[in-house]
């Protein structure tokens, strides 16, 4: 069955950077589109970024465009989210997602605060 384990979150000052990782198992990762979502406290979960199976196409929510970069390593069954120029409004729990699955991992907390 699908399993996704997110890691790399933490506390960072505004303007700082973090790199999130998501280790995938239980499906053919190299054939799957992958996405990142986030959910801030008291708010609905929102889509952040998408990457095609071969990495040739990526897209981002307007709120993170130009600051975040999604990438993947199919040999390691891992998808990444490089987050630069972080803002307090980026504070949320971040999740990776296989679009055709209902499974959600535990997420990783990102807190941007001085």
Structure description:
- With 114 residues, the chain is mainly beta.
- The chain is built from no helices and ten strands.
- The strands form two sheets. Strands 2-10-9-4-5-6 form a six-stranded mixed beta sheet, with no helix packed on it. It has a four-stranded antiparallel beta sheet with strand order 1-3-8-7, with no helix packed on it.
- It is globular, with a radius of gyration of 13 Å.
Work out the number of β strands: 10
Strand content: over 45%
Shape: globular
Structural class: mainly beta
Give the termini distance in whole angstroms.
40 Å
Poorly predicted regions are none
Q: Write down the Rg.
A: 13 Å
**Portion of residues within helices:** under 10%
- Count of helical segments? 0
Strand order of the main beta sheet, please? Answer: 2-10-9-4-5-6
Order of helices and strands: EEEEEEEEEE
Largest β sheet strand count, sense and barrel closure: 6 strands, mixed
